[in-house]
Write a structure and sequence with these properties.
With 124 residues, the chain is of the alpha/beta class. The protein is built from 5 helices and 5 strands.
């Protein structure tokens, strides 16, 4: 049985790509295209992993991850970005969070699954 994975990306195509890749290998996947909706509906203890885009309107991925981490201290987190400079400039503001999982877009299916599986093997 796979893990329960949460994907948050305002780009519907990217979110669906991630979902299909993960479901193909047996994970259960829930997608949110609006981080605000996720914050309203999030239930602690349900998800093994959060994969969130960094650059989204209103709430960026760092802020979202910070808020989710407060609600669920055990959830693993991966950040996805196509903007390396953006990531480097903002990560200093969120040094309290341990983001040791970065998904650089665009990414192919095999690389994506390898990153996710490695993160799922790490302690919560």
């Amino acid at each position: 049985m796979g893990n329960n994975i949460l994907i948050v990306d305002d780009d519907v195509g990217t979110a669906l790509f991630f979902k299909i890749c993960l479901e193909d290998v047996g994970h259960q996947v829930t997608i949110f295209n609006d981080p605000g909706s996720l914050l309203e509906e999030f239930e602690p203890g349900v998800y093994d992993l959060l994969i969130t885009d960094i650059r989204m309107p209103r709430i960026n991925g760092f802020e979202l991850a910070s808020r989710i981490r407060i609600m669920d201290s055990k959830i693993r987190i991966c950040l996805a970005t196509a903007f390396e400079e953006y990531y480097q400039s903002i990560i200093k503001s969120y040094s309290d969070l341990s983001f040791n999982c970065i998904i650089r877009k665009p990414i192919n299916k095999d690389s994506f699954l390898e990153i996710v599986e490695n993160r799922l093997k790490q302690p919560k």
